[in-house]
Amino acid sequence: MSEATRTTDILVSEVGPRDGLQSVASIMPLDAKKAWIAAEAAAGVTEIEVGSFVPARVLPQLADTAEVVAFARTIPGLTVAVLVPNLKGAQAAIAAGAHKITLPLSVSETHSLANLRRTHAQVLEEAAQIAAAIAALPVADRPHFEGSLSTVFGCTLEGAIPDAQVARLAEGLMAAGCDEIGLSDTTGYADPRAVRHIIRLVRGVVGAGAVTGIHLHNTRGLGLANVLAGLEEGLTTFDASLGGLGGCPFAPGASGNIVTEDLVFMLEAMGLSTGIDLDRLNAVRDIVMAAIPDEDMYGFVPAAGLPLGFIPATRKDRTV
Amino acid sequence: MSEATRTTDILVSEVGPRDGLQSVASIMPLDAKKAWIAAEAAAGVTEIEVGSFVPARVLPQLADTAEVVAFARTIPGLTVAVLVPNLKGAQAAIAAGAHKITLPLSVSETHSLANLRRTHAQVLEEAAQIAAAIAALPVADRPHFEGSLSTVFGCTLEGAIPDAQVARLAEGLMAAGCDEIGLSDTTGYADPRAVRHIIRLVRGVVGAGAVTGIHLHNTRGLGLANVLAGLEEGLTTFDASLGGLGGCPFAPGASGNIVTEDLVFMLEAMGLSTGIDLDRLNAVRDIVMAAIPDEDMYGFVPAAGLPLGFIPATRKDRTV
Questions:
Q1: How far is B226 from chain A (nearest CA, A)?
Q2: What is this structure's pTM?
Q3: Does domain A84-215 have CATH number 3.30.420.40?
Q4: What is the ipTM, given to two decimal places?
Q5: Which residue, A73, A252, B21, B37, is most buried by CB atoms nearer than 10 A?
Q6: Catalytically annotated residue among B27, B113, B167, B248
């Protein structure tokens, strides 16, 4: 099958090079990041969050994000995503040529102040400035701009966040000029009922077309059950981290990312094609483990193997 | 709330004392088994599979099952379940006074021959003899008799099992006199789509009322997602093992039981009451770990803790 005719049902967005690496003590060398990203793209992953434009003193693990973006842009068909905390980060992302920019807005203002030292109003103002900077670019150069509601399933400082506050902030991000609203279970508090509720709540305010993806954690073991709830609500993009990098799922307070390998297995087993070759994806683990040998990598499917006679939904005859 | 007015939405059936202990090398002393079962019942668990009537030379870990049943029967409100491989085991279970007897029938005949050294026809004949033995009892003394379709989501020796074979065996068990058909993902091959398919397939043959529960594993990390699919199909009973005892989820070939603590958390978070107090359930881990200190216990929720402000569906004012 040619590149042009390949279709997938679900977009699995790899966030390991950003969310994973920012959470571990080891600093991965630039060449290893390039090898990781290239190998995962070759396995069929079409969107990778490759870094974050934050000050190097805050996250030295991601200090080379501009170079990573420059490399990742050379991979045909890959959407190169980055996280930015503010306008300055967005300007750097634009200069580097990122295809997608995500600005997190913590729906818990306590968390927003603690994490970004900004009120909701200040973050919304940053969003408007970023949208203006993007609008000033030639149409072909404009990155996709996502405003992501973090701690949307509850905050370790505030607990549950009122629906009205979530709705107001989603509306505020769209009014500021975001193209899309992301949902992020920063704290691993989500459950399938809450996933359905938040999706319907936010879509009710901004429209279904502006809510297509979700960033779930596996902190309490419910990650894939929450994905299933999201699938049933019609979401089509799910974040995950290779080897669950970025949080030991058994450690208190860990971020506990969903394991990309397990997520892809579930989707493919359910008949939903991801375009990703599971054997090639599993092989990418070796690159990561060799580069940061002090970090643990997780995953049930890599440990247990595939079922006898397993046929993934993604056709094996595709070209890469 | 009094015992009489307590209601629950979902029955979480603890299988650790049978499925967990049969899979680990350590032999738990009888007193520890009693303490475990008593503490879990006190936490609100109303059904426990306490052992298996198999020859002691095969499973020395479960050689004291008759004594465990005798003790468990003294706990008010507890349904005492056991597994039996054949008529002889069922006769021992009846003599001991078990409330529920489960006979596994592997839908993979290769597996049935390897595991029980019996053909499908021979197991169905055992089922008929067990049903006859039960029917000969006074009505008040008759245990509930479940025929459980094991490897129903696929077999490590045969791979996928044809639908027609599954349907024929479900029908055969009911014809033999079973009260109910159980579904067991012995190999950890299930995914949410397959869960829905198998439930509908078997119910189509034996009726919805005869399929109410499922025994799922977490071998490939999909255990709770599969539970969600089962919930959506209307199942009301789910098996799980405290601490996931009975299989390291990261080891190839492990049984990888669903962790009771994580399952109860998911259900309670979704607003489905289990009648189980999570704090008291977590405390039971100490009993098990003290008795078999060489074994690993798992669980995301025990490691991460409950979300801030978490309110379980089960009321806290119930009496136990």
A1: 7
A2: 0.95
A3: no
A4: 0.94
A5: B21
A6: B248
